[in-house]
Amino acid sequence: MSQSNPVELKITSSPSCLAAVRGAVEEMARYEGFGEMDSHALVLAVDEALANVIEHGYSGVEGLPIEVTLSAVRSSDHRAGVCVVVRDQGKQVDPGQICGRDLDDIRPGGLGVHIIRSVMDEVEYSCPNEGGMLLRMVKYVSSASAEKPEA
Predict the structure, then answer these.
(1) What is the chain's pLDDT, residue by residue, as a tens digit (151 residues)?
(2) What structural domains does the chain harbor?
């Protein structure tokens, strides 16, 4: 997989910061040729990841640092994609223990991990030695939804 020069966003753990990240992700997806459905799925997954950092990693405390890095990538079969890395300084959690709640438990909320894993092509959580968590997600353009260039 090849990777381009990254776009680095530094925000704080405030829900008001999420709109700027959503806009940047949407613009990059559009630039990389994502169709509307793939673009929406990518934005949704990133939004869920950031909401999880705020709610679980930082226990709802605002003003704490979150770094989001966006990179254009290419798969081994040359499909365009976007790699998103979310880095926080919150509570570390064993990556093997990160899973969504039982889908039979019908109630509001708690589906962020399910959403992330279902819409992204690659999802990897890790615990950096310096503390906090790192989430790396990749979504590739699906051939069915890639936007056709206008003639």
Answers:
(1) 445 679 999 999 999 999 999 999 999 999 999 999 999 999 999 999 999 999 999 999 999 999 999 999 998 888 999 999 999 999 887 766 656 555 455 444 556 788 899 899 999 999 999 999 999 999 999 865 544 444 3
(2) 2-140 (3.30.565.10)
Helix, coil or strand: residue 69: strand
| Distance in angstroms (rounded) separating the CA atoms of residues 5 and 3 | 7
Distance CA(78)–CA(23), nearest Å, equals: 25
pTM of the model: 0.85
Which burial class, exposed, middle or buried, applies to 77 when counting CB atoms under 10 A from its CB (0-12, 13-18, 19+)? Answer: exposed
Whether 89 and 67 have beta carbons less than 8 Å apart is answered as no
φ and ψ at residue 140, rounded to 5 degrees: -105, 155
Single-letter residue type at 75? S
Contacts 24+ apart (CB under 8 A), 25-30: 25/70, 25/82, 25/84, 28/70, 28/72, 28/82, 29/82, 29/139
Residue 106 corresponds to which tokens in the numbers above?
Answer: 């019908």
Does residue 136 sit in helix, strand or coil?
Answer: strand
